[in-house]
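forwarding from the other thread:

> can someone predict this with magnesium ion?

sure thing
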Amino acid sequence: MVTLESIRTPIKADLEAFDAFLERQFHAEGQLMNQMLLHVMASRGKAIRPMLVMLCSALCSAANARQWVEGERNCTKRTYLAAMIVEMLHTASLIHDDIIDEADQRRGKPSVNALWQSRNAVLVGDFILAKAMKAGMESAQYDLVSHIIGAVTTLCEGEVLQSQHAREGDTTRQDYLDIIYKKTASLLSISASAGAVSVMASRKDVEQMRRFGEALGMAFQIQDDILDFSRSAQTGKPANNDLREGKITLPLIEVLEQCDEAERKEILRRLKMCATDEASVDFIQGVVEATGGAAMAARTMQRYIDRAVAILSTYGESPYRSALVNMCAYIVERNK
Ligand code: FPP
Ligand code: MG
């Protein structure tokens, strides 16, 4: 079992410095805003995206024969800036996502909207987004900031596309892949390529990192969707939320592609009832379990991981490459 520690090791000193750097952004005028920001900071996730920025910047530095010194801080200011902006975009997007999904929990803690209502939560998300843009503009690193900032529009398109398909109840495999690229893989892809851009890597390296992050991101979201069907996962969110929100994700798509027309009609009929009827949630969960929907989805996920690892193998052996290979394994194995 790959641990997060094995991914963090080569960039440990940089990650510690990064946390302090990020924390400085999470202050505002006003007691309520500060209280909410404190909660957001204390509920942070695994910091996959900042790790991706740093490890990809290190990988491309190593490719350019600029070796990092182990145990020391090696990131440039540009790399910290890129890591901070992607983490802030991600944080803001999850606050808004919980408002949209009316989710009460995030990472085992109450969501911002559950504690302070949507009207305040939306403003915390806006605040973090605005802070990220301000930090970007003040840095004057316009090439890097413009490389990252386009991700916001893609995230919004992904969310709206998902909401459109959930309402229409008609998600095909291609629709699903399009949605998860936009809502998740695009930001991981930007994180990886921003790492390369932050150290002035070649266009070829930037493109390789973009493709690597995209494949990793697709796998990341597929695993998220598999975990949603698992009642023993430790995601800090209730299982089957996707069904309650009417989302058709890969484990269910796999099943819908296998079954006959009558079964398909029945599943889609029950899906429409999931928002208010737990028996329908249990029914679809049962069908997905019996048909092996999660195992079929895992095979698709593995193909993306293989693609990501193949890109890494074009780089020479280094602690950063090993950490990124571990990140690929971690994404497949994680249960939270
Ligand atoms: C989580 O999906 C949500 C996302 C990956 C993207 C959310 C994006 C927006 C709300 C667009 C606005 C963006 C900004 C930057 C303000 P999920 O609901 O499937 O995952 P979950 O189970 O973790 O909630
Ligand atoms: Mg959600």
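The pocket of farnesyl diphosphate (ligand 1) is lined by residues 89, 92-93, 96-97, 100-101, 103, 125, 129, 152, 155-156, 159, 183-184, 237, 241 (CB under 6 Å). thats all i got for now
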